[in-house]
Amino acid sequence: MTKAVEAVGAAATAPTAGELAARTVGLRKSYGRTVAVAGVDLAVPRGGVVGVLGPNGSGKTTTIRMLLGLTAPTSGTVELLGHRLPEHSGRVLPQVGALVEGPGFHPFLSGRENLLRCAAMEPALRGPEIRGVVEQALDRVGLGAAAGRRYRGYSLGMKQRLGLAAALLVPRELVVLDEPTNGLDPAGTREIRRIIAELHAAGTTVLVSSHLLAEIEATCTHVAVLHRGSLVAQGELAAMLDAGAPHLVVSTSDASGAVTTLSGKGVQAREEAGAVRVDLSDVDSAEVVAILVHGGIPVHEARLARTGLEDLFARLTEEEL
Ligand SMILES: Nc1ncnc2c1ncn2[C@@H]1O[C@H](COP(=O)(O)OP(=O)(O)OP(=O)(O)O)[C@@H](O)[C@H]1O
Fold first, then answer.
1. Residues 13 and 234: beta-carbon distance below 8 Å
2. How far is the CA of 270 from the centre of ligand 1 (A)?
3. What is the structure's pLDDT at 223?
4. Taking the CA of residue 134 as centre, how many other CA atoms within 13 Å lie in the half-sphere pointing to its CB?
5. Distance of CA 212 to the CA centre of its chain
6. Whether residue 86 has a cis bond before it, omega within 30° of 0
7. Which phi and psi angles does 60 have, rounded to 5°?
8. Which ipTM was obtained for this model?
9. What mean pLDDT comes out for the span 284-311?
10. Within 13 Å of residue 171, how many CA atoms lie on the same side as its CB?
11. Which of 92, 113, 124, 319 has the lowest CB atom count within 10 Å?
C-alpha cells in the first residue's frame, strides 16, 4: 500500500454499528483458486449514498451478491439493517430493494406483466393497490410506453429500468444497485441520478456500484474503493478528496520554463492542458509563485485545485513499485 493510500484511509469516518445500514466483517469469497473478495470490512452508513468503486474484476458484484444473500460467503459475516444474514433474511430482505445482474424476469411476458408478478410477491402490497403501484413504478423509470412489450425484446437499458422499477416497488430502507447505468444512454443515466437523489432525500440508504468515476462523484456521499478483492479505502467522499494531495494550477505563457524552474528547486510540476500543475505535498502555493516570479516566469493565474476522484482512484489502485 502506498503512502497516499494510507493517508486517505486515515480520513475515513467510522460510524458505530447502529448507524450502519449494512456491514460486512472479514467478508471473503473464493472460487477455486480465484479470490474474488479478500476479507472486506464494509461499512454503509444509514442515509448515505455509498459508491462501491473498482476496476473490472475487483469484486464489486461478488460483494453485493453476498450482501444480498444471493451468494454465500466463503467466510466472514454480513449484517443488513442491524440483523445478521442469512439468519434474518426473511425479516430484512423485504426492506431492501436490489438491482443486480440478471434479474429473473420472464422473457415472454411484457415488462408490465413481469412487474405485476414481482409486486404479487411483495409482502407489503395488497391486491387492489398492485396495479396502480406497478404503473407508477413503470412511469418512474421511464418505461410506461414500452410496458406492454415482451421483455425478450427489451434493450439492455430497458432491462435495467425494469430491474430498477422492481427494486423500487415499495419504499425501502436500503436500495442496492449494481452498475445501474450499465447500458443506459445519457438521458437514462441522468434519470438514474435523479432517482438516487430522490431516494437520498427520502432518507433511504443507497449502495451503488460503478466503475464510472464521474457517476460516483456526482451521486455519492461516501465511497468504498475495491481493488483486487480488497477494500483499499472507504469514507466520506468529500473527506477523501480533501485528504488527497493538493495541487496548484498555474497559468503562464511559459509552461515549459515554469516546469524547468520548479524542477530546479526540487518541486514536482508538469504541463497539463496548457497550464502547469504543481504538486503541493512538500511546498506551499506562495513559495511556488515566489520561485516562478524570481525565475522570471510570468504568472497569469494560480489556483488551488481539489483532487478529483480520478486522481484519488489512480493513487489507490496503482501498483506498489
Ligand atoms: N461464479 C464465479 N466463478 C468463478 N469466478 C468468479 C465468479 N464470479 C466472479 N468471479 C471472479 O471473481 C473476480 C471478481 O468478480 P466480480 O464480478 O465480483 O468483479 P466486479 O468488480 O463486479 O467486475 P465487473 O466490473 O467486471 O462486473 C473476478 O476475477 C471474476 O472472474
1. no
2. 37
3. 93
4. 21
5. 8
6. yes
7. -65, -55
8. 0.96
9. 87
10. 7
11. 319
Among the atoms of ligand 1, which is closest to the Cα of residue 209?
22
Range 247-305 classified under CATH 3.10.310.10 = no
Question: In the structure grid, which three cell numbers stand for residue 127, read together?
Answer: 391486491
Task: Decide: 101 in ligand 1 pocket, CB within 6 A.
Answer: no
Quick: pLDDT tens for 89-136.
888 988 999 888 765 789 999 999 999 999 988 888 887 889 999 999
* Ligand 1 nearest atom to the CA of residue 101, by list position: 27
pLDDT confidence of 4, banded at 50, 70, 90?
Answer: very low
Q: From the CB of 182, is ligand 1 less than 6 Å away?
A: no
186: CA distance to ligand 1 center in Å? 26
Q: Quickly state the pLDDT bin for 309 (edges 50, 70, 90).
A: confident
Question: According to CATH, where is 3.40.50.300 located in the chain?
Answer: 3-242
Cβ(225) – ligand 1 distance below 6 Å: no
Q: What is the mean pLDDT of residues 60-73?
A: 94
Q: Point out the ligand 1 atom lying closest to the alpha carbon of residue 59.
A: 18
CATH number, domain 3-242: 3.40.50.300
Retrieve residue 117's grid coordinates.
408478478
Tell me the pLDDT tens digit for each residue of 9-61. 434 445 566 689 999 999 999 999 999 999 999 999 999 999 999 888 899 99
Atom from ligand 1 closest to the CA of residue 65: 18
Helices and strands, counts by H and E, the chain: 12, 15
Nearest CA to ligand 1 atom 28: 57
Q: What are phi and psi of 208, to 5 degrees?
A: -130, 130
Distance 54 CA to ligand 1 centre (A): 12
What residue owns the CA closest to ligand 1's atom 29?
A: 57
Whether the pTM exceeds 0.95: the reply is no
Helix (H, G, I), strand (E, B) or coil at 98: strand
* Distance from chain centroid for Cα 281: 27
Domain with CATH 3.30.70.100 in the chain: 247-305
**Ligand 1 and 160: CB distance under 6 A:** no
User: Which amino acid residue places its CA nearest to atom 5 of ligand 1?
Assistant: 31
